[in-house]
User: What shape does this take?
Amino acid sequence: MSKTIYQYVDELPKGGITVSALKALDAIVPGKWENLVGFTDTIKALTGETDEAMIQAIGDRAVHLYNDKSEGYQRAMWLYQTVDSASGALGTAAIANQFSDNIPILGNLIGKLTPKPEQAQSLDLGVKLVAEVVTFCLINGIPGDSIGDFLAALTDYGGEARIRMAALVCFDGLVPLGAPFIEKVLQTIDHTPPNELEKNSTFKGINELIPGNDTKSKRNFIGESFDSVKGWMSSFVSENELTQDKVLNTLSSAVEISTDKLNYAGAFLDMAVKYYAHTGTQTLARRLIERSLAEI
Assistant: This one.
């Protein structure tokens, strides 16, 4: 039996590598992210309600909405979680001696990481961006291929949604691929044949919810989605004066990650920092609570 929405929110970690990495990122791309955990506490924080009966009513309505299979909330939650687990699989597997000795926090992760090939990393980023488009559509009850609606909303992203996009740009773009990550991703998508895309674990993980009738059309949608946000990504990088070194130096102060083996830093982030599921759960909770309040 799947968990309830309040179980997901109650079980969000208050600390750990994911939270530390996101807090570090929030310091250089201020999005006013607050690590809201606990379903009742989240209701109170988002609504300002203190009346226990009202808080209970909002919570009950949110649970009802989440459980309604005709709504898109459960599929959105599945997407957020699947993206993280599929991406993490790409970071696991093999080389034990490629980290410097100054990463004690890795613990038993050492020896389980290997860098992704640049093609896989680029495709991973493209697929993650599409997951954001699709979850946005599911949560807001609009067609899953509504790139224009997503792009219009992106400029108003704040809190946990903004920090998720910041992590997408920094952890999946700048750190493993460097400054030209946008061009690398677009070129990779354009030159990857459908049978190669089908081998990408992140694509395989969420394939069924990517718009398109076949792999080629799904690849085209990934490319179209990424191309539509390249302007936003470029502006985001320049406005926040983001560089690979800046992101790595900020991260290294929070999670003691090595800055001298960039491929392996990317693999570590894939495996250990579950920002998509963490902030995605917070986004779902926010949307459900705000809608519930409006409907009561």
Q: What stands out?
A: The radius of gyration is 19 Å. Confidence is low (pLDDT under 50) at residues 90-111. The chain has one domain: 5-295.
